[in-house]
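Contributing new records

If you add data, match the layout below exactly. Sequence lines come first and carry their own label; structure lines follow with theirs. Keep one chain per record. Anything else will be rejected by the validation script.
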Amino acid sequence: MLDFYDYFDKYFIKFYQWMNMSETEAIRYANISELIVAFILSIILFYLVRFILRAVVVKLINKTKNEWDDLLLHHKILHKASYLAPAIFIDLSLDHILVNHVVWLEIGHLLVDIYLTIIIANVIVALIEVFAHIAKVTSKNKGLPVKGVSQILKILVYIVMTIVVISFLFGKSPFAILTGLGAASAISLLIFRDAILGFVGGIQLAAYDMVKEGDWLSLPKHDADGVVIDISLTMVKVQNWDKTISTIPTYSLVSEAVKNWRGMEESEGRRIKRSVNIDMTSIKFCTSEMLKKYQKYSLLQDYLKTKEEELEIYNTSNTGDDKVLVNGRRQTNIGIFRAYLVEYLRSLPEVHNGMTFIVRQLQPTEKGIPMEVYVFSKIQSWVEYEAIQSDIFDHVLAVVSEFDLKVFQEPTGADFRFLNK
């Protein structure tokens, strides 16, 4: 290559001397001409390298069954690396062409070094994206903050690139630049506060397996309730059930209260916890007529038979006057209603009998006595779950009156109009 420049150098000099230039001027313009030729050759080299890569390397990659090498094409690593060829060619040519021009030689090397630094940084960033994609696909732990780690690595690459470029411009060592930046560490921490907190939060989320993509989260403070679709260095995207997107700082998932429904989704059921308020004035002891009516309910026949035998044995040993209701033990309509709900819920195939199963009375309030159903549905899908829950309480509300009970309800305008009649 150097012989090539030397061969044309004398012809350039003769050409400029023929144009009535002095020898000094002819040499200077000859060097400029050689520099132009070097740029033209570097462009030709660039397209030649691109052609070889496309004709040989790309075809070989496309023929392989391995999917990972396709990522090199997807992230344009070969395309970006091809920009190194003309810079290396120019860098080798400058020392020979501008040997007599020290200032221009230094400027040329400076520009080439900056150019190479930027290209190398971009190639490294593309490689990080490739490895991040591979790690995300092959990792067994889907909660690893791969995207966050890759983003912090890319930021570090760009920081190093900036420091190296500054060191070239000021002619100082990169370590000297780092020493100077140490004085501005407080400002740097302030600027990159979200990135640092997000990175720390991402590590904690992965270490404790707190949140991962696909989890259903509820964050009332951020008005978010939906599925995690993306976890990045500083933000977590949650697609709410109304299809809106909420962006939440990553560190907030560690520092604030978050409800993750993953445990429910991984279990065998989804909890149904709802109550009906019973009017306490409708609660009473059961008469023989009431018991005969309840005996007709198939779900209660075994229960009533067993319970009546138990009470008869107890009351027989009681010496009090059995004609007085408060003497001895008696069945109540609310107790039988509660037993009916237990049998009814156990008969439903959608209700999980192997998990917590409770029908209970809660503390009486001014709005009646709550009869709470606390069971688990086998079906976790939101739409089907709500349908099952609604079907259960449709039946509960409809059957209450069959047990001579009333559901408590706040009086309305219609109630007051009825009183005036």
